[in-house]
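Recall the central idea of this unit: under ordinary conditions, the amino acid sequence of a chain determines the structure it adopts. In this exercise we apply that idea directly, starting from the sequence alone.
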Amino acid sequence: MHWVVLLLSWLVLAFLFALLAPPAYQKLLNSLIIDAWAFRLCLWIRTLDPDTRSPFWCDVFVVVEIAYALMSMRQNQSIVAQDITDYLKIASFCLGCWMLYLIRSDLLKHYNQREHYGLELNGLMTYMFSFLYFQSQLYPIAKAKKLECDQRATTTISG
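Accordingly, the structure predicted from this sequence is:
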């Protein structure tokens, strides 16, 4: 999927949630959009390398992210509940960064050691644009692989 399609999909869903969902649920729904894409990407990475660690950490991130979103929905929290919410927020941020860089590592390992496409992923761009950046770098590889596959099929049919 092209990164622009991913961005537009996220914007459309976020806009619909802003219009249709009660305000208390908007943070949860918006985090589910990101969580769903992270989960999908990690499942795909698992097909490339069954021993990868990023799907496990994605699961942990999603659980903590959803717990944080649910806790932050509560009104008039006690001091203890607010502290838990704050800790979940910090844990969610840290796990999100950890997961992104594990995904980055898995992609670099696969496309540089196994398939030799020469993938380069900038650390700062990974942090700033995460999944959009991954998609922008993976889309040309997917197109090249499809073209190679089509050429092999044409060669096989004509040969």
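The helical segments are 3-20, 23-48, 54-73, 79-114, 123-158.
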